[in-house]
Amino acid sequence: MDIKAPDLGVDSAEVSEIMVEVGDVIAKDDNIILLESDKASVEVPSSAAGKVTKISVAVGDQVSEGMVLIELESEADAKDDSQSADTENKTEPAADKRNEPQDNQQAEKQSDTNVAEENTSQPAKQASEHVGKATTHALPDLGVDEAQVSEIMVSVGDIVTADQSILLIESDKASVEVPAPEAGKVEKILVQAGDMVANGQDFIVIIGEGSDSASNNVSESKADTSESQASKSAESTNKTESAEQSDKSQPTDEPKQAAKSTTNTNAKNATNAKLTEAQVNEKMVDIYAGPAVRKLARQLGVDISQVTGSALNERILKEDLFAHVKGKLNTQKAAPASGNGVSSSLPSLPDMSNTEIWGETEVQDLSRLQKVSIPQLNYNTLLPQVTQFDLSDITETEKLRGELKGAMKAEGIGFTILAFVVKATAYALTQHPRFNSHLSDDNTQVILRKSVNMGIAVATDDGLIVPVIKNVQDKGLKQIAIEIGELAVKARDKKLTTKELQGASFTISSQGNLGGTAFTPLVNWPQVGILGVSEASMQPRWNASKQTFEPRLMLPLSLSYDHRVINGADAAVFTRYIATLLADPRRILL
Predict the structure, then answer these.
(1) Which tens digits make up the pLDDT trace of 455-472?
(2) Which residues are catalytic?
(3) Which domains does the chain possess?
């Protein structure tokens, strides 16, 4: 039986740790592989019980959904082999049995009876073990490093069905309802409203539903005896395997621990100054941390060898890095301020309680979405952002939209000018791929995206949310209009999934009929560009052929871009190209 990788929430992830060995007997939902992506670390459970016969991946491999991880010999397969062997034994020549002593024949009959009873009780034992089994479940990939528990929708003792919403999680991107991973009774809730949670964190214990009808077919005494024998056998096997693994790991663990101890000792004697990326990479050789943590360490310039891991086998988590940085900042804050230093953040507010100076004040809490948006928005302080403005004459395009919107409305499709903007921008990105890219961590390369995943900013009561339309370059105006409408409804109803909020390569922020002539949208890191669209208005434009002014419908465009990747001349050309496509969408057909 092949155990395959489930839906990981990302295209691929790296095998960080293999938690089983060939020959291990595992139960369903036992963790077998630790996978790490740039989003999170995820422990993959086994979808069945059995004996591990083959491990198909190795540490460091990149795996994706549907890839075979391990192969199992299930209990049903082992039982079939046993029955096949019994059948072969029973087909021996009858003459041999006639020559056996009478007492041997009686012993054989008794043995056959015991085997039959054991085989009969086996399904009942499995059903009995399944009934009332409490399983701890971890959060799925939330699409962000952490999010806040906004609401707990169930209580201890409640009976839940599979996929029933049990938690409401809010991040800087959206509010997401977490479904129940299985049907059963809620035994324990491991989080509380207001807690900050991360991907893979245990959040609920559920006693799974089962059926005890099979156990009614045999007596309780036989089932108890069978379970007792199986338990003793499993305990003996586990002790033997544990001893063997201990013997195997002892020689190899000591050098690693000694090397790690030496590394940590040397690191503590080193300077606390921020390291270059090359220096950080040199210190990562003997450190137990996943690729996402290593990437974060490079971004923060942290000496990872000075960080103490809190996970199993001293594995370093993102939380350990944050705690390390926080400790350093607190230490620096306590030290006397240097006159030559430059503050990396705004100073504290003055005392606002003096009403003679400041007048009356009122304190209001930010919404959860605003609070969790602040770290992402702070990235913009590090981007050299510039905005290019332009106007597009969409008079003819609006006429075309007016001719088509009646038929679209009959099909229940809202056909707005935004569909044309999305299509034109996606086509422009295929012709100017540098705007559909990301700057590498070391600022030496540009990563070009071959597909256009368009983020569409949607205003909700809680704030701005940006769902993503995937592969826009392959879709027509009608399909784009359908998906814009569906995602907008999901955003306002808080029904967006994490996949619908991930993977954007470029963003469009349309103010529609909100008013205004232009604005400066903020680039959403790690993207390098965002297009702002303001309200169209009738303006007089000079017609050279008629030598007169005539009214034209003009659409303001505002392109903000990361000046490290995009220069001003290219931005002007790109914005004018989008304006030209919107003026005559037939150009896209060429």
Answers:
(1) 988 877 777 788 899 999
(2) 563
(3) 1-91 (2.40.50.100), 270-333 (4.10.320.10), 377-589 (3.30.559.10)
Separation CA 273–CA 279 (nearest Å): 11
Q: What b/e readout covers 436-472, taking b as 16+ CB neighbours within 10 angstroms?
A: bbbbeeeeeeeeebeebbbbbbbbeebbebbbbbbeb
CB 531 within 8 A of CB 425: yes
DSSP state of 213: T
254 vs 257: CA distance, rounded Å = 5
pLDDT of 253 higher than 60? no
The single-letter code of the amino acid at 236 is: S
Pair of tokens at residue 522: 């903020």
Residues in the chain: 590
- Tokens matching residue 212: 């005890």
The 3 state secondary structure assigned to 32-49 is: EEEEECCCCEEEEECCCC
Residue pair 47/70 in contact (Cβ under 8 Å)? The answer is no
Q: How many CB atoms lie within 10 A of CB 9?
A: 20
pLDDT of residue 575: 94
Tokens of 310: 């809190």
Residue 316 is given by DSSP the state B
| Host H or E run for residue 388 | strand 385-393
- State the Cα torsion 299-300-304-309 to the nearest 10°: -100
Nearest Cα to 125, choosing from 231, 29, 227, 211? 227
List the structure tokens of 279: 């220096």
Omega cis (within 30) before 45: no
- Whether 396 shows a pLDDT value over 60: the answer reads yes
Distance separating alpha carbons of residues 18 and 54, to the nearest angstrom = 12
- Confirm whether pTM is higher than 0.85: no
pLDDT the model gives residue 272: 45
101-118 residue pLDDT tens: 455 555 454 555 554 455
Condensed to tens digits (0 to 9), the pLDDT of residues 150-207 reads 788 888 888 888 878 888 887 765 667 788 888 888 888 988 888 888 877 888 998 8
Q: Which residue has the tokens 């991360």?
A: 198
In angstroms, the CA 468 to CA 237 distance is 51
Q: Return the residue matching tokens 């903000």.
A: 560
Name the CA radius of gyration of the chain, rounded. Answer: 32
Structure tokens at 565: 């990747």
DSSP single-letter state for residue 381: G
Long-range contacts of 448-451 (CB under 8 A, 24+ apart): 449/505, 451/505
Q: Would you say 482 and 497 are in contact if contact means Cβ atoms under 8 Å apart?
A: no
Dist. CA 563–CA 439, nearest whole Å:
11
Helix (H) or strand (E) holding 543: strand 537-543
- Tens digit of pLDDT for each residue in 341-361? 333 466 777 887 888 888 888
